[in-house]
Every structure is written in structure tokens, then in C-alpha cells.
Design brief:
The protein is mainly β and 234 residues long. The chain is 15% helix and 39% strand. It has three helices and 16 strands. A hairpin with a 7-residue loop joins strand 11 and strand 12 (176-180). The termini are far apart.
Amino acid sequence: MKQVFAVIMLTISAFIPSEVKAQSDAPVVLELFTSQSCSSCPPADKVLSEWAEQPNVIALSCNVTYWNHLHWKDTLSREFCTQRQREYNAAFGRNGIYTPQLVINGTEQLVGSHGRKVEKEIRKASNAIKNIDLNIKGETLNIFLPELSEGKYSITLFSHGDKHTQSIPSGENRGRTVSYTSPVQDYASLGRWDGEARSVSYNVGNLDPAKGYAVLVHERNSVGAIKAAGQIKL
């Protein structure tokens, strides 16, 4: 039986995230699994938007589909976000999935509205990832992969929007207007990589139109520890 949980937050402490400036411009990757149909998600959406303003933070909203039956269909929801979250939770050894779940650098997960805990985990993880340089010419995205230790890596490209503001007329968030940070719109697997420095090009015309792109390199599989990451906003 499918297990899905909503996290109900009664009180959320207001906070302003401290600047996280990692060594060698190492990025920190935040993936928030959220939904417009989840009443406990808006505080986490706000936390993500605040961290997105910080240097070196790659913040992505991945809107899931499994709450779409609650009298409102999430306009940003993508089935691949639901699948990606399931894969992460299998890697974490979790039996069920929930929103709002924040995954940091592919290795830590927690409730995305726990602002102080989010800051603590970001500070612990902020030096672990190498930066990927990106540029775009026309529809060609050029990806410059840094040298990593020899191994087996998986490269995934995400196209995403800018900040998206949505008025929600029905469902659990009825009457609310919520903003979403860099909502993921489409993705492409760019295959395997051995860790040797190289450049890769991809025709982003194959993806949904976007306001930015993020490239994540995971160790071995398409989820798990992120070893390199980069983002370009248009």
C-alpha cells in the first residue's frame, strides 16, 4: 500500500538564513518536494525562497503529484518529481514519502519548514560539492565537468522556471497565494561519467522552455550523494 504523509506544522519560527559561502565556490543543492495541495508546505516554500538568495545555493522546487486529489491539481506538479522523491526515500531507507521534504546535497533529508535545522544541515554540507560551469549559446547548453576521483557517476539536467506565484482557489490551501522557487519543469539524463574533466553539450530545445538549468552529478545512481553541481539562470 502506498504510504504518504503530510507534515503539519503548528508554529514556525521566523528566521533569516545566515550567509553560506563555501570554499572554492562549492555549491549547496536544496531540493524541496512540495505541493500546492499540501497545507503544511507554504512555510517550507518560504524557507527555500530565502535560501535561494544566498551565494552558491542551488534551490529547486520539485512539485509532486500525489496530493492532486485534494480538490486542487498542482499546476507545477510533475510525475518525475514524485518518482525522484520515491527513489531518494528508498536510498534513505524510508518506507513512506511526505511533504514538505527537503533534501540537501542528496545525502540529508528533513522537514523543509524547520528553518534552524535546515541552516544547521546546510552548514554541515556546504563544502562537499564541486562546481560545474555552464554557459548557453542559442539552444546549446555547454557543461564543463570538473575532475572528480575516478568512479561511476550519473549526470542529470533539470530545466526550471523562475519564481512562480500561484493563487490557489480550492483545496487545503484555498485562498492562499504561494510563491515557488525555480520549479522543476523537465529533465534529461545525460548518462554516465567516469570523473575525468570534460565538456558536454546538450540541445535544451528538447526540453520544456525554461528560465534556468541545473546539472546535478550523483555518485553512481540518479539520486544519492551529489558530487558536482551547477546552475545557470536566463
